[in-house]
Amino acid sequence: MDVTMHINGEEVTRDIEPRTLLVHHLRDNLGMTGTHWGCDTSNCGTCVVWVDGEPVKSCTTLAAMAGGHDVRTVEGLEVDGVLDPVQEGFIQCHGLQCGFCTPGMMMTARALLDRNPDPTEAEIREAISGQICRCTGYATIIRSILWAAAKERQDALDPAGSAS
Amino acid sequence: MQVPAPFEYERATSVDHAIALMERLGSEARIVAGGHSLLPMMKLRLATPEYLIDINDLSGELEYIRIGDGEVRIGALTRHRQLLESDELAAVLPIFRDAERVIADPVVRNRGTLGGSLCQADPAEDLSAVCDTVAAQCVIRGGAGERVVSMHEFHRGPYETAVGDGEMLTEIRIPIRPHSGSAYHKVERRAGDWAIASAGAAVTMDGDTIADGRVGLCAVGPNLTNVEPISAALRGQAPSEELYATVGQIAADNASPVADTRGTVAYKTHLAKELTIRSLRKAVARATGQG
Asked: pLDDT tens digit string along B114-157?
């Protein structure tokens, strides 16, 4: 069946089997390997992408179900060579070691900050509670997200400063 | 790699269309909403439907929380997240927020639905116990029209519901009565896991005594979404720690958990008792304005 979806703003149509999971469609059909494929049981959260602005686990979503919808993946965080503050935060605060959980963590973090620009540590822990990291003990991931939140609040106060 | 067996995919444009598709496609058709129960079953090949009918476009018809005078109506496609975040629902039926805080994780709650959870009828699924605890009615629609069954009739046992071929669950109706309170407690191994055990309680007070009380258990045996002997023990009694202990023991006596990696029979039985006590205590506190 032909399935058309918007991925990071671009319309993409492919003839796929209905049983194709969104994570495999992204990775295997479209070569977008930024989204990782982990536990396959909706526990680990490395496959998190957005569908219509909300984080979902793409191993438990059919590509067909995303047809006609907007999908955003980790590849869509960086715009015109400028990293998203969440990506910057993960660099600044060593938010990753092996990097396997990172795409899902960053997509969830981005969604959190869009809804709540000044989250507490507890709110960040809750937001990423459906995702597993086996390297960091989460401490540096939380620090990275706090860093991004602080940066965005600062940029909002001082737009000229962020452009310079 | 876990991939479902092949199937044909249809997207419903209305509830009537979904029912017409099911009638045409027969018993091998299944409805998919959030997909967070059915797709894992399909990936494990425990479910192998030949046709999948996607109802995610039906949010206009099936995604709502309506608080009426004496009743709450919730559409079957309402997501866990909406059940968690609705202040209006939490004000009249706080048991939903109690439960939703500990159902899966925030990302899963974005997709998973009330109707999907109830229709999956997993023995460790929280919302069946929640809905039976608050005496919910389930609206089931088919080609011949609607029928309404109690949650107790709806949930026939593990993975079995009253929904027949060509039918779908469309709505849950819950009575709201003055001087009532409800609560839910769950113990899990880690954030987002299935319950080791959980218990919900709902009470309606008549002055200083309990006019009506219900307790539902989850993950400690089949057909415990409403433990009927507990209602009999609560009726007309004044709330007290002694009463809660008595009722907790009834919960333990009715529980029939199996030992697994989540815990021993003794541990789960203890939890059934203790979580019943805690939920009752909180439900009474809420009903009497102290919660």
From this structure: 999 999 999 899 999 999 999 999 999 999 999 999 999 999 98
Q: Counting Cβ atoms within 10 Å, is residue B27 exposed (0-12), middle (13-18) or buried (19+)?
A: exposed
B-proximal residues of A, 23-62, CB under 8 Å: 24, 40-43, 45, 48, 54-57, 60-62
N- to C-terminal Cα distance for chain B?
A: 48
pLDDT of residue A164: 45
d(CA B87, CA B89): 5
Q: How far is CA A148 from the centre of its chain?
A: 14
DSSP state, A79?
B
Which amino acid type is present at position B34? G
pLDDT, one tens digit per residue, over A3-48 is 999 999 999 999 999 999 999 999 999 999 999 999 999 999 999 9
* Two structure tokens written together for A119: 């989250």
CA distance B156 to B214: 18
B241 exposed, middle or buried (CB, 10 Å; 0-12, 13-18, 19+)?
exposed
Residues of A in contact with B13 (CB under 8 A): none
Compute φ and ψ for A16, nearest 5 degrees.
-130, 160
Q: Which residues touch B10 (CB under 8 Å, ≥6 apart)? A: B21, B25, B51, B52, B53, B54
